[in-house]
Design a protein that fits this description.
CATH topology: Rossmann fold
Oligomer: single chain
Shape: globular
Number of domains: 1
Radius of gyration: 12 Å
Structural class: alpha/beta
Number of helices: 4
Number of strands: 3
CATH superfamily: NAD(P)-binding Rossmann-like Domain
Largest sheet: 3 strands, parallel
């Protein structure tokens, strides 16, 4: 990943409460990237969001719910 080409991106990552989603979010956040971290239970992301308060937004998202998908995108756009 080239940092200069990703400096203006906002990453929306699903499944950030564990596994690959959490690993990806943590890696990007540690590199200064902005992340909309999502999980079905947003409270499971509290520690991640607290660790990166300027660059991480934790939002609830069940990808099978079109309304939640739309809300997550809108909230991310408002944040950055």
């Amino acid at each position: 990943m080239n940092e200069s080409t990703t400096s203006c991106r906002v990453w929306l990552i699903t499944g950030c409460s564990s596994g690959f989603g959490l690993a990806l979010a943590t890696t990007l956040l540690s590199r200064g990237q902005r992340v909309i971290a999502t999980a079905r239970q947003a409270e499971s992301l509290a520690e991640l969001a607290a660790q990166y308060p300027e660059t991480c937004r934790a939002l609830p998202l069940d990808v099978t719910d079109a309304g939640q998908v739309k809300t997550a995108i809108e909230e991310g756009a408002k944040a950055w």
